[in-house]
Amino acid sequence: xxxxxxxxxxxxxxxxxxFDVEDGSDxxxxxAELKAWLAERGLVAPTDELxxxxxxxAGEVRAAFRGLLLANNGLPVDAAAVAxxxxxxxxxxxxxxxxxSGAAALAPARAGFDGALARLLAIAVGAMREGTWRRLKACAxxxxxxxxxxxxxxxxxxxxxxxxxxxxxxxxxYRRRHA
Length: 179
Fold this sequence. Notes:
mainly alpha
């Protein structure tokens, strides 16, 4: 099991990992599963209604986040992923909110699915500001691409698991060299 990302950044890691690239399984089989996942994490209210369009949009944003995490692992930044995230941010309004101590944070301006997306985007912006975003990566093994938090000292982690994905890649490269 992968180590969790720090703080709320763990929500993005979990969100990306709701789709398993290797076997094609999707935790969001329908709007009800999406709503349950978001409600369980406090991103939507249990009374919020989510539909097929929200499900489609969630899948697009999840894939775009995965693309950004692959870029954190050395791949070129995917322009389509950036465009999808920018489009999502246009619908998911954020506002600056100040707490009683005077500290500011980005908070969703709307409830429902748009609010949930806004919260995920605010987490990403905060992680970029804090310097933790670059450690959230997608596995370099093309059959996996699971999101993981790189805890290596020099930020050189490449695979979600050295024992599984790292071994697959190294064995494949060895066979290729010795073929």
